[in-house]
Amino acid sequence: MLNRIPAVAALLALASCDAAPMADYRPGEAGTVDHALCLLGFTAIPLQTVRTGHHLVAARINKVAGQFVLDTGANVTVVERAQADRLGIDPDDDGRFGLGASVRAPSGSQAQLARIDSFEIGPIAIRQKRVVTADIANLLGPLGKAAGIEVAGIIGQDILTEHRAIIDVERPMLYLMDQDRAPAPVAADACRRAAG
């Protein structure tokens, strides 16, 4: 991610956001991807596409809404430090990663662990209780400008892996597992209810 920042910022400055209508979600219709993934326990969450190919997802931290960019190349979820107060985030007491070691964010600033009370993406309650805060405005600012909205942070591999994310880039849709288990068949009635 560090080497991509100048190139990404330049591309984002030239891009604009596609306001594509929400994909037709059909979990109750046999033979669809939605139905197959629903039967395995996944929930669909619509994404907003930026012409650069980035995807934004609406989320809530501590019950406060924000837009986040999905970054499959980011190891951790990062909240822009300037957004932390708005989202009710306070850095941990020691403010660092384990045993006093500090970490540099892409902007060169210190990154800090922060406790959160709740984190939801769509109807999915995210299980982790900490995020990283850092000054990444140089990365998120151009993306927010291109999308016409403020971007609060980055959803990284920690959340995507924990909730077994599947990203359908074409539609665009994010599928997450709510429960902490391997995908396994669920009752077909659950998918019919999700469709209604």
Distance between the termini: 40 Å
Q: Proportion of β residues?
A: 25-35%
State mean pLDDT (0 to 100 scale).
Answer: 82
Q: What is the CATH topology assignment?
A: Cathepsin D, subunit A, domain 1
Task: List segments where confidence is low: pLDDT < 50 over at least 5 consecutive residues.
Answer: 1-21, 97-101
How would you spell out the order of helices and strands?
HEHEEEEEHEEEEEEHEHEEH
* Architecture per CATH nomenclature, i.e. the level-2 architecture: Beta Barrel
Radius of gyration: 17 Å
Q: Could you say which structural class the secondary elements and strand pairing correspond to? A: alpha+beta
Largest sheet, in brief, is: 12 strands, mixed
> CATH homologous superfamily name?
Acid Proteases
Mind telling me the CATH class?
Answer: Mainly Beta
Helix fraction, binned, reads 10-25%
What's the domain count?
Answer: 1
